[in-house]
Design a protein that fits this description.
The chain is an alpha/beta fold and 138 residues long. It contains seven helices and five strands, in the order βααβαβαβαβαα. The chain has a single domain, classed as Methylglyoxal synthase-like domain (Rossmann fold), CATH 3.40.50.1380. The mean pLDDT is 96. It binds 1,3-dihydroxyacetonephosphate. One of its GO terms (molecular function) is methylglyoxal synthase activity.
Length: 138
């Protein structure tokens, strides 16, 4: 599965800790992240992560583009609901695309725990069916 990891500045420590806790699960998947988040997780865990641009410089949009191509399976995005972000339109667009394409999305630690455990239990395998249908069309 392809998993995107994103966190706003005040939530980065939480996502780093989450990534340490679930490193064995995450290591089995293809990981993507916005620039700064990805670097912090790499530094803390050594996980292999493809880093896009930093969020304010287009990273959210790059991940959104993968979603629009049905090329992203899970998004874990620890948002900071208490701080205004300069790239708020990009953030809203990313969340919207998750809803357009029915991509499992966790915007906080509580939901991320459920999502990652579901992933480990094989409950997100339906994404493979979506992939095979997409491949049939092309
Ligand atoms: O701003 C972000 C998501 O909207 C995250 O970007 P960084 O990981 O580069 O800080």
């Amino acid at each position: 599965m392809k998993i995107a990891l994103i966190a706003h500045d005040k939530k980065k420590a939480d996502l780093v800790n989450f990534s340490i806790a679930y490193q064995p699960v995450l290591a089995k998947h293809q990981l993507y992240a916005t620039g700064t988040t990805g670097q912090k997780i790499i530094d803390a865990t050594g996980l292999h992560i493809h880093r896009f641009q930093s969020g304010p410089l287009g990273g959210d949009q790059q991940i959104g583009s993968l979603i629009a191509n049905n090329d992203m399976d899970i998004v874990i995005f620890f948002r900071d609901p208490l701080t205004a972000q300069p790239h708020e339109p990009d953030i809203i667009a990313l969340l919207r695309l998750c809803d357009v394409y029915c991509i499992p999305l966790a915007t906080n630690m509580g939901t991320a725990e459920i999502l990652i455990r579901s992933l480990e239990e094989g409950k997100i395998k339906w994404r493979n069916i979506i992939h095979s249908k997409t491949n049939e069309k092309s």
